[in-house]
Structures are given as structure tokens and as C-alpha cells.
């Protein structure tokens, strides 16, 4: 689940507990509902920080929950796509304070924020699909292309499954900044959030401009071809 704290104009959404923060429908619904709550409570220029307790920022989809029924994978995909659309449409700057591992869909969740800040002493960014024999969704790659400008870096993230630490991620332009500890990462995120909120930007204009940057992602969110195709293949196999 997640909790919400407000510091001045800064909203801090925290994935709670010491588990892997696997993205199952319960957690995805909790995050999305919290974002809607923030949106309804916002009356002044603000910023959102998303962070997490424990060793993981998020270890991606809850594959153990999804493997018993193909329809569960479809449900997880739909709810993550709704969450990403909500973040892209969010009327304020967004910052992911990554204080642990962010893998696969968890990496995508972090990258859907405007800024990613990360601790140096623990954790890595990791697109695990090649290593666990899954086809990466088209829309995942579109998110990564919006945030990773160097084609060679993008190749190594997707096709080599590089586990990227914070200092390397800064050097390769994958994240905004790296910090000495979880506490320092969140502190830096709050500082950046305060700086951005002070710019007094119009939330509607900010959202519209972000949608331009993420136009290719928004165009792909209606359909997750990878999940749908796997489910269709399983149905066909069961009939043979």
C-alpha cells in the first residue's frame, strides 16, 4: 500500500512496508487513488515526490500473482497503464526518489516521473525482460525513449539488461541526480520540489506541455500488445 505526507506545497507518496512493492492491482489502485486525492486537494503550485520504504522502489509486476490466470496479467497491465496516464496528466512537477531497486515495470513507474533521483549506496535500475524471457511491451520502450536520449544506452538497458547504479545512471543521462543515502535522496527531492513549486507554473499548462513530450506514450497506452498476444496464444494452445 502507500501513504501520503504533505510538507508545505510538497506531496510525498510513499510505497510502504519492506517488501518488493510488486505492482499488483491492490497497490496500483492505491497509488492511483492517492494521486486523485492529491489532485482534489491541490490549491496552490505544488510538486509530487514518489518514494518507497525498504530495499526496493518496486520490483515490477507481481508475476507470481499473475501466473495463475492470464486475465490477471491483463488486469495488471490495464491498471499500470492507467497509473502512467494519470502521472503524465498530473498538474504539477513529479519526482521519483528511488531509494532501492527499480526493476522492469518498477523502472517504468520511476521513469514516468519528470525527474528521477536515486541513492548511490544501494539499488539499481534494471529492465529484466530478456533475463526472465518476457517480451517487453511497446509502450514500455516508448517511455524509455522519452527519457533516455542515447540509443546505445537504450540498447544496453533493453537488450543487455544492464543493472545500472546511480552514478552510472547519471553519467548516462538516465536519471537527474544521485545521492549518498535514502534520506539524502528524499531530502534532495524535497528541495527540488520546493524549487519547482516556487516557479508558480500553471498546472494545466504544465500538463499540456508534458503530454506533448509523452505523446508517443499516450498513443500506445490503450493497448498492451504483449500481454494481449500472450493471452491469445494461451487460449489457442488450450484448444489444440
UniProtKB/TrEMBL annotation:
GO molecular function: delta(3)-delta(2)-enoyl-CoA isomerase activity
CDD domains: crotonase-like
Biological process annotations from GO: fatty acid beta-oxidation
Pfam families reported in the protein's UniProt record: ECH_1
KW DNA-binding (keyword) present: no
Biological or metabolic pathway of the protein: Lipid metabolism; fatty acid beta-oxidation
EC number, UniProt record: 5.3.3.8
SUPFAM superfamilies according to UniProt: ClpP/crotonase (SSF52096)
UniProt xrefs under InterPro entries: ClpP/crotonase-like_dom_sf, Enoyl-CoA_hydra/iso
Top-rank lineage group of the source organism: Eukaryota
Catalysed reaction equations from the record: a (3Z)-enoyl-CoA = a 4-saturated (2E)-enoyl-CoA; a (3E)-enoyl-CoA = a 4-saturated (2E)-enoyl-CoA
Record keywords: Lipid metabolism
UniProt record similarity statement: Belongs to the enoyl-CoA hydratase/isomerase family.
UniProt xrefs under PANTHER family: ENOYL-COA DELTA ISOMERASE 1, PEROXISOMAL, ENOYL-COA HYDRATASE-RELATED
Protein name: Delta(3)-Delta(2)-enoyl-CoA isomerase
Organism the protein comes from: Artemisia annua (Sweet wormwood)
Amino acid at each position: 500500500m502507500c501513504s501520503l505526507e504533505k510538507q508545505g506545497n510538497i506531496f510525498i507518496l510513499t510505497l510502504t512496508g519492506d517488501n518488493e512493492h510488486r505492482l499488483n492491482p491492490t497497490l496500483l489502485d492505491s497509488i492511483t487513488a492517492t494521486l486523485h486525492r492529491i489532485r482534489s486537494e491541490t490549491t496552490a503550485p505544488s510538486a509530487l515526490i514518489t518514494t518507497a520504504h525498504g530495499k526496493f522502489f518496486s520490483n515490477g509486476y507481481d508475476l507470481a500473482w499473475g501466473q495463475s490466470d492470464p486475465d490477471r496479467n491483463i488486469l495488471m497491465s490495464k491498471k499500470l497503464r492507467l497509473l502512467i496516464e494519470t502521472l503524465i496528466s498530473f498538474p504539477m512537477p513529479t519526482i521519483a526518489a528511488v531509494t532501492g531497486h527499480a526493476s522492469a515495470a518498477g523502472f517504468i513507474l520511476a521513469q514516468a516521473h519528470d525527474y528521477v533521483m536515486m541513492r548511490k549506496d544501494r539499488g539499481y535500475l534494471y529492465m529484466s525482460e530478456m533475463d526472465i524471457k518476457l517480451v517487453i511491451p511497446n509502450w514500455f520502450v516508448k517511455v524509455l525513449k522519452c527519457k533516455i536520449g542515447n540509443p546505445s544506452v537504450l540498447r544496453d538497458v533493453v537488450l543487455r539488461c544492464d543493472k545500472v547504479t546511480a552514478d552510472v545512471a547519471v553519467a548516462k543521462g538516465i536519471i537527474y541526480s544521485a545521492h549518498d543515502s535514502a534520506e539524502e535522496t528524499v531530502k534532495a527531492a524535497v528541495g527540488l520540489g520546493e524549487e519547482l513549486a516556487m516557479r508558480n507554473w500553471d498546472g494545466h499548462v504544465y500538463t499540456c506541455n508534458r503530454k506533448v513530450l509523452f505523446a508517443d506514450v499516450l498513443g500506445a497506452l490503450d493497448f498492451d500488445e504483449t500481454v494481449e498476444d500472450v493471452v491469445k496464444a494461451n487460449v489457442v494452445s488450450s484448444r489444440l
